[in-house]
């Protein structure tokens, strides 16, 4: 009789878990949204398509800088990440043995990414772009993560300015300076950030409360939160329209349409809250993501059509 032995269980190599953990530290999905604002700024600055090597080098440097900032954020926030369901599986917060990164190694990894970002941008693009990328890291970690996040409900209003820097980096990569259109692009991101993040914080209010993080939905009533969301949504739309002077009428039409979509989603959330029923803040959160991406795509389209 032939005895068939079961195949031994397959074990994933330890290095595979380490690679996944290090990658998770950089928060790739956040990086994607940040880079969406970089290339349109470059196109607008060039009034056309920049050279492919310049775009690629700027994106590589921006990715390294954003990864450094996000990994540092994971390092400093590992205690509160462990208390929140949404973040409990991040590498430094998780008890999962697949995550093999220790806090000291994560800190070294984040620092190396920051150094690499500075060198890539400084040596291959220009030193202003490198300085702006470094400023974004410092602002996100020192001002937001360490200074504001655990102390004030205005944390994301001020700290969200870190997300403005990719547009400035993109513009500086092409021109070697920072111009008014770049500042307007950054301003769009600045006023867009609060409604984007407050919608997420409404969904995970209990998480933030358990971690002791005073996000606005934790310390304010839902009615007050949606009122502020509407204010910042209106500000986002208004600032986006100032770019018509630079990105052209095609962009302007898109900005009006996208702004109406954004406003409609925010107004629906307000109606849900006022009705006392089940509010769906994540619907607004997803709209904010798509709105920003499509608005910056419209910058590219409007610029190229107008050239």
List the helices and strands and how they pair.
Elements: H1 14-25, H2 28-36, H3 38-46, H4 52-76, H5 78-81, H6 103-124, H7 127-148, H8 155-159, H9 165-175, H10 180-203, H11 205-211, H12 216-219, H13 222-242, H14 244-247, H15 249-275, H16 281-306
Word description of this protein:
There is one protein chain. Helix 3 runs parallel beside helix 9, helix 6 (103-124) packs antiparallel against helix 7 and helix 9 (165-175) runs antiparallel to helix 10. Residues 1-13 have low confidence and may be disordered. The chain contains 16 helices and no strands. It is mainly α. It has a single domain (16-306), classed as Farnesyl Diphosphate Synthase, CATH 1.10.600.
Class of secondary structure makeup: mainly alpha
CATH class: Mainly Alpha
- Helix proportion range: over 70%
User: Which outline best applies?
Assistant: flat
What fold name goes in the CATH topology slot? Farnesyl Diphosphate Synthase
Total domain modules: 1
Which ranges are low-confidence, i.e. pLDDT below 50, for 5 or more consecutive residues? 1-13
Biggest sheet: strands, sense, closure? Answer: none
At a glance:
With 307 residues, the protein is mostly helical.
Which terms summarize this structure?
307 residues, mainly alpha, Farnesyl Diphosphate Synthase
